[in-house]
Amino acid sequence: MAEPKMAQNTEKEFSAGIKRKGHKSGQSQQENDHGQGIMGFIRKFPSIWLGWANFLLPEVMRREAIVIFRDNFGFSRSKFRNNLKLVVLIIFIMSKFFVNPAYDRAMEAVSRVWNQVEDQEIDDDVYFNRFYRALWRFLLYLFALIFVEEVIHIVEVSLSVEIVAKKKIAFAKRYLNNFVAYGIQLDESQTEVKSEIAADEQKSLQVVKLFQDIEQENALLGLWISRIDTFVDFITAIGALWRVSPPTDIALTSTYTITVPVLIVTGLAYSFVRYFFSGFFEKPLLKITAALSHATDKVIRQLTQVQTFSESICWYRGEEYELRKLIQCIHEESSVESKYHRVNLGRRAIETFFMNISWLVPITVCLPQVRRMEIRREQLSLCMINFRRMNSFLIWSQMRMNFHSLRKIRDSTRRLALFDLRESEWEITRKEISSKLSFGSTVEFSGTLFADGSRKRELANGEFKFSRGDIVHLSAPSGCGKTSLMRAFAGINGNYDGSVKLPNNSLFLPSQVYVLGEDDPLLQTLVYPSDHSEVTEPQVKLVQTWIQKLKLPDHLWDDISRLRNSSEKALHSTNWLLSLSDGERKRVAFINVLMKMKKSQPTFVVLDEPFKGVDHQSQRVMIELLREFTQTQTIILFSNHEGNMNFNTHTLTFAERGMYKLVQA
Description:
The structure is a single chain. The chain is built from 23 helices and twelve strands. The chain has helices at residues 2-24, 29-56, 59-72, 80-94, 96-114, 124-175, 180-183, 196-203, 207-215, 217-244, 262-279, 282-308, 310-316, 319-357, 360-371, 377-394, 400-436, 482-490, 522-527, 537-549, 554-565, 582-600, 616-630; strands spanning 247-251, 257-261, 437-439, 443-450, 458-466, 471-475, 496-502, 506-509, 604-608, 635-639, 650-654, 659-664. Strands 3-7-4-5-12-11-6-10-9-8 form a ten-stranded mixed β-sheet, with helices on both faces. The longest helix has 52 residues, at 124-175. The chain is elongated and about 115 Å long. Residues 1-39, 41-45 and 567-574 have low confidence and may be disordered.
């Protein structure tokens, strides 16, 4: 930390030396001010340029577009189809440079013929011939314009869907790789955040919401198309207004003036004034919408909490408390939403005012020329249309739909950046864990376990070694690091100083067993993570034997037999999960362990509370089934508060001074 301070002090001394030197050399204060003014402008020029760039194209669109273009377009063969779609998109967008003026001329022709409807000097046949010919030409260009718009929309949607799907798949691969799904949920981020909202988002990144954030990328390409579309309209509008707008002189100096179309100057001034007044509400609204998103997340989390632990809440009679908490979250959300609508009221009023006077501006400016017949009425109608096009380009980011879409994309990119941050932090943690792991034929631990990443609270310490055929009962009070030790063996806990050695082929059963949901058949849970379609008949018969030995309900086997005998592979029961007690779920998960032990014959098996919630008779059956695998010299480590049932050969106890001690059983 000393080096930056020295650099800072040196910079201050250097600046002070320049000032003293300038004063000593006899420079006048006026020259200094002039120099500072020029240098000040040069220093401010990047921010001025950046402000104009953000005005024309918001920063989030530029940044995300670079990422999307880099990931989805290029010279590789896999990106050829996307490149082709992009070329088609550009061609049809550029075609609007020709379609728009042709459409305007056709509409002007219809208006010109319509203005002659009361002219009795024109023969009826001649007039109707002119009108229908102009109308047919107008409809032709209208259909051409619709065709161009629809092709652009179809290609845009096709590209957006493919880009979003590819990004979701890439995100899923990152999320379900290297234990990232587990790692980012750990509340061990060391990065400081500036706001409570950002801190809350950083601590509870929900993958469902992150997928929704990726879905927002679907709107990004549409925003880009819309922006380019308004640019094309802007260029064609400038050309149309330049031809018909009356000129006006603008004095640049006392002797030099330029002549420019008054409608273009008025349109630019009108748009900047509208953007200026609308911009007053941009930052407050963005801040409030972030708070609103935070409040909505709290409501969703509370509802999810109630849904997940509904049975426990009923047992505790906690409905009233949960209701009060949910009502409080809803009130907070409605309060922030009301604040948003109050602030947005001013913005809506300004937007409505400028939107309703936009048609009056070209009329007011061109009124003298219309009176003198220098501008025809049909030309004035085109002036109003092109004036609106020019205005749409200049205040594009302040339009209601675009404003909200840009806000959602900013929120999405912020949360995805937080995910990237947590992932990078977890990658560092994984490297630290990997550096402490080594592999061999035995299981060894040497070091000190800590409660969390801060390493302020020590759980236990010790040094021990398990050999082939050892069955070790981990016996220690709650809170002494049993699960932390097993997580260290699983390679997902690095909160320890020391080293771990274990065989390459290891198997783990966590205390909180994983049972697939009702969308999957029971057999899939039993063979997870393998596919149930790959299970052989001998394996199915073995599952049937284990189900009978563990006294699991008969209908579970009925579900498996129906699935195996049916020609429809998706056929399965949807209520088997709801019918299982906690002990039965534990036994189902235990069958999964037996299936893996039978298939891969692991050298090291870790069972965290495998008998929790299981009756004594079923425990004895589980132990007998495990003993069948001890003949293969498998090392088994298990924890159990209800006793070891004389199953173990060794006991790893929690001795005095927080030390683990391995003793013979």
